[in-house]
Amino acid sequence: MAIVVAGEKQRSPLFAISATLVIALVVGVGAYYLFFSPAPAIEKIIVSQDLQSISQVSKVNIDTQAITESATYKTLVPKLPALQLSGYGRANPFLPF
Predict the structure, then answer these.
(1) What is the C-alpha to C-alpha distance for residues 64 and 50, in angstroms, rounded to an integer?
(2) Tens of pLDDT along 22-52?
(3) pLDDT > 70 fraction of the chain, expressed in percent and rounded
(4) Concatenated DSSP letters of 17-86
(5) What whole-number distance in Å separates Cα of residue 83 and Cα of residue 79?
(6) CA terminus-to-terminus distance, the chain
(7) Which of 12, 17, 32, 71 has the fewest CB atoms inside 10 Å of its own CB, making it the most exposed?
(8) How many Cα neighbours within 13 Å face the side chain of 87?
């Protein structure tokens, strides 16, 4: 009786290299189109009204000093009492109970 031990066929490293290159190519092309490709022409031509109004709002300058020094602002009174800070938690939270 003869015992036949068949050795494993060794794969060619060509398959692993080509698969790695294909994956790297797909990731590279996806990254280019996601981050570096120019905007399509339709997006440059059509700008919605929402985007135009947002750009106008972003250009508004608010004078906070004029607001905080106005008589109306100074007449405002808080309706809630100030919070009292008390000791909370344990001095060493890692001690067992």
Answers:
(1) 26
(2) 999 999 998 888 888 776 666 665 666 666 6
(3) 74
(4) HHHHHHHHHHHHHHHIIIIISPPPHHHHH---HHHHHHHHHHT----HHHHHTSHHHHH---SSPPPPP-
(5) 12
(6) 72
(7) 71
(8) 3
